[in-house]
Amino acid sequence: MSVTSNSADHFDLVLVGGGLQNGLIALRMLHQQPSCRIAMIEAAPQIGGNHTWCVHARDVPDAARSWFEPLVVQRWDGYQVMFPDLERQLRSGYAVVSSERFACVVRDAFARHAQCRLITGVRATAVSASAAELEDGRRLFGRLVVDARGPDPRAFAGRCGYQKFLGLELRMREPHGLARPILMDARCPQTDGYRFFYVLPLAPDRLLVEETRFSLSAELAREAARSAVHAYAARWGEIAEIVREEVGVLPMPWSMPAQPPQPQDALVAGFRGGFFHPATGYSL
Q: Could you report the per-residue pLDDT of 123-153, keeping only the tens digit for each?
């Protein structure tokens, strides 16, 4: 891509939605072609939301590492999985990207490129293949428009289950001693679908502990989930502080509409475009 207009409202790329995939698109394009004019529009006050994204090392191509690595806040050389009749330690790299780091890296990239614009706190009301109209009346034009505003549950009606989770980032009073993540501990009562706990040791005294269910129901019992996380985390000692809470109910479709894109439509990306692992919900 190359710069085609000096107009303040014309861009090479207009990215609608400030989530994971549009952030990755922006970082890669600015790494590959620093003169690319990019606009990113996010309805929330800050890009990135409140998420924790994890990735297996082998899923990051070598060619992407130079611009991807600044997103990583912690990495490990392996992880554990636990089932009632099987436990296993796997020696395979694993890394975590936080919303906070993601927002910081993407904001800094936009700040370094004066021809780019990051717009937050404003919703896009209409999106097409060549333009995005904002609720404040502005129109941004792009040679390519990417719509990644997250899942539209109506698109999966009757054709999906749900991944629902509640995670607490905890500061422990003493070092917890957990060296590697627990990606799945299914040694717990199997209620309301397939249930397991997920644990990331973020620092010597800090853990992210999450209760996850793959379920046919979209209802998340938050108080019960919080109690379950507290009880599970107690094996590593006393909790000093709840740093952050993360909650999600994501559609897990077993089929998606197979409608070919029309010339007037924006490119659909992110979860809305099917860019996630169908069995785990991993999107990074």
A: 999 999 999 999 999 999 999 999 999 877 6
Which pLDDT belongs to residue 262?
76
For 224, which DSSP code?
Answer: H
Strand 72-76 with 94-98, pairing: antiparallel
Q: How far is CA 30 from CA 2, 37, 69, 108, in A?
A: 12, 9, 15, 11
Q: How far apart are CA 174 and CA 164, in angstroms?
A: 30
Cα–Cα distance for residue pair 211/213, rounded to 1 Å: 7
Q: Which long-range contacts (CB under 8 A, 24 or more apart) does 104-110 make?
A: 105/27, 105/70, 105/71, 106/18, 106/23, 106/26, 106/27, 106/40, 106/47, 106/48, 107/47, 109/26, 109/27, 109/30, 110/26, 110/38, 110/40
Bridge partners of 160, per DSSP, are 253
pLDDT higher than 50, residue 4? no
Q: Is 158 left (phi over 0), alpha (psi -120 to 50) or beta?
A: left
> What's the pLDDT tens digit per position in 236-257?
999 999 999 999 998 888 877 6
**E-strand stretches of the chain:** 10-16, 38-42, 52-56, 72-76, 79-83, 86-90, 94-98, 117-120, 124-127, 131-134, 139-147, 160-172, 182-185, 194-203, 206-215, 239-253, 267-268
The answer to whether residue 22 scores a pLDDT higher than 50 is yes
Distance, CA of 179 to CA of 112 (rounded, Å): 37
Supply the pLDDT for residue 258. Answer: 66
